[in-house]
Specification:
The chain has about 210 residues and is of the alpha+beta class. It is built from 3 helices and 11 strands; from the N terminus they run H-E-H-E-E-H-E-E-E-E-E-E-E-E. InterPro entries: HIF_prolyl_hydroxylases (IPR051559), Oxoglu/Fe-dep_dioxygenase_dom (IPR005123), Pro_4_hyd_alph (IPR006620), Pro_4_hyd_alph_FE2OG_OXY (IPR044862).
């Protein structure tokens, strides 16, 4: 795979910034090159096969617990230097972080993300991505890694937008969804096949106690 550099003034990134500013969310059906999407999917599958993924927990810190009635996905956080594909994705998201900071003055400091694997039947009940006791998560970004997804496969991301409007996103490979973490309630509907994604958050600096 050829290394790529997406500058932070790339038209696709500027469109996302513009969408965020006007609607609080953005959906780009063709965001990542197919080769990178495939490489990330293979990396997620490999981690799943090797037993590296762990049931996702709800909450954070001391109150964190696994609750399959709320979410049934399995995850693994990614760190720089683990694979070429992951590093390329992190580089793209860093350009998006710079674009958002330039356009919206959000002061996003870093990006954290994890692979998420939903086995058939798994779901994630409606929630907001911002924790009550930690409001650093500011912008959520999810890239889907599934080939040839059909509506009848289920697994849609259902976003609850202003005015009670619901918007469903098919988790089709290469599609990116970005939204303001504290503003848009959303859920993952159960699917009838494996559902792979990379889910992440751009974070602001925390209000650290002195
Ligand atoms: C999450 C989440 C949505 C999706 O992990 O917080 O809402 O479509 N994921 O995978
Ligand atoms: Mn979420």
């Amino acid at each position: 795979m050829r290394a790529m550099h997406i500058p932070s003034d790339h038209p696709l990134l500027l469109r996302i910034v513009d969408d965020l500013a006007t609607h609080g969310w953005s959906q780009q059906n063709i965001f990542l090159p197919e080769a990178l999407t495939r490489a990330l999917a293979a990396e997620c599958r490999k981690r799943e096969a090797e037993g590296d993924l762990a049931p996702a927990a709800v909450g954070r810190g001391a109150t964190q617990e696994v609750r399959e009635g709320i979410r049934g996905d399995q995850i693994q956080w990614i760190e720089p230097g683990e694979s070429e594909a992951c590093d390329q994705y992190l580089a793209v998201m860093n350009s998006l972080r710079e674009a958002i900071n330039r356009g919206l003055f959000l002061g996003l400091e870093d990006f954290e993300c994890h692979f998420a694997f939903y086995p058939p039947g798994a779901f994630y009940r409606q929630h907001l991505d911002r924790f009550r006791d930690d409001d650093r998560r500011t912008v959520s970004a999810i890239i889907y890694l599934n080939e040839a997804w059909l509506p009848e496969n289920g697994g849609q991301l259902r976003m609850s937008l202003q005015g009670g409007v619901e918007h469903d996103v098919q988790p089709t490979g290469g599609c990116l969804v970005v939204f303001l973490s504290g503003d848009i309630p959303h859920e993952v509907l159960p699917a009838n096949r494996d559902r792979l994604s990379l889910t992440g958050w751009f974070r602001r600096r925390g209000n650290e106690p002195f």
